[in-house]
Amino acid sequence: MKFRKVTAAATTALVLSLTATACGGGDGDSESGSGGSDKIKIGIKYDQPGLGLKEPGGSFSGFDVDVATYVAKELGYEADQIEWVETKSADRENALSRGDVKFITATYSITDERKQKVDFAGPYLLAHQDLLLKADSDIKEGTDLNGKKLCSVTGSTSAQNVKEEIAPDAQLREYGTYSECIAGLQSGAVDAVTTDDSILAGFASQDQYKGQFKLAGLKLSNENYGIGVKKGDSETLNKINDALEKMVSDGAWDKAVKDNFGPANYQNEPAPQIGKIVQ
Amino acid sequence: MFDFLSDYDDPSLLGAFWVTVQLTVFSAIGSLVWGTLLAAMRVSPVPLMRGFGTAYVNIVRNIPLTVIIVFTSLGLADIFGVTMGAPDDFDLQGFRLAVLGLVAYTAAFVCEALRSGINTVPVGQAEAARALGLNFSQVLRLIVLPQAFRSVIGPLANVLIALTKNTTVAATIGVAEAALLMKEMIENEAQTVLIGAIFAFGFVVLTLPTGLFLGWLSKRLAVKR
């Protein structure tokens, strides 16, 4: 009998606390959902050192993160009001159209197909497809790749470029992530890793790889990184463009490039002009 | 709406699904052979073989397939130099490594399905066969396995369908099958839902007839007791 009483009391307490927390949670959600003025959600990548990386401690670093933080500040949000959301390549258009994020800075190259689904502010960085080589490699130009072993990420634009144009006779291995490719480069299983030079510079700047790799500097393609916003949201688009112009003119842009890509001896392009896409 | 499909010729949509079919067929044959051997080990009178079979099945079926497939390429090929007879052709090497990984993984499930089939064969049959003077492998080969196979066609069909879908994991090591082409298309066309639907439909086309046919076969061939 006593036991039953205790159980009943415990159950009541449990149910009460559960309902209480449920209410609390619900209130919190609806507040941030309807208000929207206290937080801003920004889409980035979590797995690209130098551009967008979630550090083991939970903080975020990279060029995309720095640009997004600057833009958010111009839109009226301090750094602690930013909520970072991971947007993988396949999910970027949907995240914007659903309204999950206000804008996306995630190595998002401006292309005609994508422009049909989203609007782009910027570009804020001109990157080129390039090769990452071992520091003592003798590969000089794209045609040197024929017969060599090359690594890129499954289905990426860079992998397609290699197969179709740059070196059709190269052996291309496609892995799920760039980290796996870098591991292959380090162990000598592949001769080069290819993707945008900004991404490669980010990897080569990581502490554990310093001094081991070099960029070939080939400029095999032009990738205009833009900031994706929801189709038709021209108010945000214009504000972001203004913010980007300000970022370049007050020197914050240069500093962000130096901070994030510096150690890899990355030869960055000058800041691109808003709306000018290099084909 | 579907006109972008003609932009893809290496691999094309049908070509990519053809690679999926090839992966499935080779892996199915391999895992059927290896799975049968494992099942024989698990019911054999030799403790060492029983131990090996049990350990293999319990370890391999609990490792995620992605880990196994990535290991065949990053570990076996890159670090230990196992190139499967194709050191200079990453496409062929990737395909063979993927088949190796899929066989190693799927065989564990084939083995367990088959072992449940062996348990449906009455013990008296094996005893009678022993009494006639047949040895262990003869009992298994002539009396037990033929009946066991007929009773587990249904479960094996499930394993085969799972295998068909599991071949998509081969995309992580760059085998140009359906999932890889899907990634490529989504990267270029920015049409997640439409492209996803096309590939989902492709897999239904592959697996639905398999399931229906093997379901019919299992009813026809089941040993009525």
TrEMBL record, chain A:
Q: Name one GO cellular component term.
A: outer membrane-bounded periplasmic space
Q: Which UniProt keywords apply?
A: Signal, Transport
Instruction: Give start and end of each Solute-binding protein family 3/N-terminal domain.
Output: 39-264
Sorted alphabetically, which Pfam families does this protein's record hold? SBP_bac_3 (PF00497)
The signal peptide annotation in the UniProt record is: 1-22
* Gene3D superfamilies the UniProt entry points to: Periplasmic binding protein-like II
Q: Which InterPro entries match?
A: Bact_solute-bind_prot3, SBP_3_CS, Solute-binding_3/MltF_N
Q: Which GO terms describe its biological process?
A: amino acid transport
Identify the SMART domains for this entry. PBPb
The record's comment on protein family reads: Belongs to the bacterial solute-binding protein 3 family.
What name appears for this protein in its UniProt entry? Glutamate ABC transporter substrate-binding protein
Classification lineage: Bacteria, Bacillati, Actinomycetota, Actinomycetes, Kitasatosporales
Automatic annotation (TrEMBL), chain B:
What does the UniProt entry say about where the protein is found?
Cell membrane
The segment(s) forming the ABC transmembrane type-1 domain are 17-216
Q: Which Gene3D superfamilies match?
A: MetI-like
The UniProt entry's GO CC annotations, sorted and at most eight, read:
ATP-binding cassette (ABC) transporter complex
Please verify whether the record's keywords include Transmembrane helix.
Answer: yes
Bilayer-crossing residues are 15-41, 62-82, 94-114, 192-217
The UniProt entry lists membrane topology as: Multi-pass membrane protein
**SUPFAM superfamilies of this UniProt entry?**
MetI-like
In the record, what terms sit under GO molecular function? Answer: transmembrane transporter activity
Biological process terms in GO annotation:
amino acid transport
Query: One Pfam family of this protein, by short name?
Result: BPD_transp_1
The UniProt keyword set, sorted, is:
Amino-acid transport, Cell membrane, Membrane, Transmembrane, Transmembrane helix, Transport
- KW Ligase (keyword) present: no
List the PROSITE patterns hit by this protein, alphabetically: ABC_TM1
Family label: Belongs to the binding-protein-dependent transport system permease family. HisMQ subfamily.
Tell me what this protein is called: Amino acid ABC transporter permease
- Taxonomic source organism: Streptomyces chromofuscus
